[in-house]
């Protein structure tokens, strides 16, 4: 590989890795670590960073697997220029010639192996029970796109994302930090799961026709765009309802700080209801959904750090 080819592949790797979307896994990890600190007053920086790196490797590996599967199925190539947005169409590395299929597969193998090695280090030297959580996370990430399950092609991708970025990551990180889990930890993972599922849900709208043509029968394709808006609204409702449950169970009203995003959520649903078939207009809802996830994450971190305080 000469210098120009190396630079092409290097740029393609970072486009595929797409660090800006690591916020999806960063939020649950930081919330879990903050909640652990709020409950115990202890924070192990070394194992937090190691866990963070491991999850990021899984993210990159998942992106790589999804990229070459969507390319092979034709989904990425079926996305027309008018439907391409910053929130859709995959990472576009193969379509744009930044990476070959073979290079993408190699990246998937290397990053998943690296994640597994880091996971084993955590299991051996920190917390054995992480093996169960880590194994489930890796399998969910791999089979999100790969057969025989192909969750994202069989209407189970949204559930897989919600479970992975919600309960699995939150409980896994809390376990690394404290060596235990409890029902309240599961509860605080629920709004994260609902909200990240909504990020995926609204981001599937621009790809709807391409997914349908490529036989990627996710839940949105199965129920249609108009009915999909009701699911979009319901996921927001489930997230905000779960905050009420958390506040009651933990006897801490600080969890209701996340309600500051309700006006933005209402605006997003109204945009989706009006422009679900007009992608340029719908993009604002896509952006709002990501903002809500980020802002809510910050509010949850604050509530977690102050979890010993009762209001």
UniProtKB/TrEMBL annotation:
<dbReference type="InterPro" id="IPR044878">
    <property type="entry name" value="UbiA_sf"/>
</dbReference>
<feature type="transmembrane region" description="Helical">
    <location>
        <begin position="45"/>
        <end position="65"/>
    </location>
</feature>
<keyword id="KW-0472">Membrane</keyword>
<feature type="transmembrane region" description="Helical">
    <location>
        <begin position="129"/>
        <end position="147"/>
    </location>
</feature>
<comment type="pathway">
    <text>Quinol/quinone metabolism; menaquinone biosynthesis.</text>
</comment>
<feature type="transmembrane region" description="Helical">
    <location>
        <begin position="183"/>
        <end position="202"/>
    </location>
</feature>
<keyword id="KW-1133">Transmembrane helix</keyword>
<keyword id="KW-0812">Transmembrane</keyword>
<feature type="transmembrane region" description="Helical">
    <location>
        <begin position="292"/>
        <end position="309"/>
    </location>
</feature>
<dbReference type="GO" id="GO:0046428">
    <property type="term" value="F:1,4-dihydroxy-2-naphthoate polyprenyltransferase activity"/>
</dbReference>
<keyword id="KW-0808">Transferase</keyword>
<feature type="transmembrane region" description="Helical">
    <location>
        <begin position="231"/>
        <end position="249"/>
    </location>
</feature>
<dbReference type="GO" id="GO:0009234">
    <property type="term" value="P:menaquinone biosynthetic process"/>
</dbReference>
<dbReference type="Pfam" id="PF01040">
    <property type="entry name" value="UbiA"/>
</dbReference>
<dbReference type="GO" id="GO:0016020">
    <property type="term" value="C:membrane"/>
</dbReference>
<feature type="transmembrane region" description="Helical">
    <location>
        <begin position="159"/>
        <end position="176"/>
    </location>
</feature>
<keyword id="KW-0474">Menaquinone biosynthesis</keyword>
<dbReference type="GO" id="GO:0042371">
    <property type="term" value="P:vitamin K biosynthetic process"/>
</dbReference>
<dbReference type="InterPro" id="IPR026046">
    <property type="entry name" value="UBIAD1"/>
</dbReference>
<feature type="transmembrane region" description="Helical">
    <location>
        <begin position="105"/>
        <end position="124"/>
    </location>
</feature>
<feature type="transmembrane region" description="Helical">
    <location>
        <begin position="254"/>
        <end position="272"/>
    </location>
</feature>
<dbReference type="InterPro" id="IPR000537">
    <property type="entry name" value="UbiA_prenyltransferase"/>
</dbReference>
<feature type="transmembrane region" description="Helical">
    <location>
        <begin position="20"/>
        <end position="38"/>
    </location>
</feature>
<protein>
    <recommendedName>
        <fullName>1,4-dihydroxy-2-naphthoate octaprenyltransferase</fullName>
        <ecNumber>2.5.1.74</ecNumber>
    </recommendedName>
</protein>
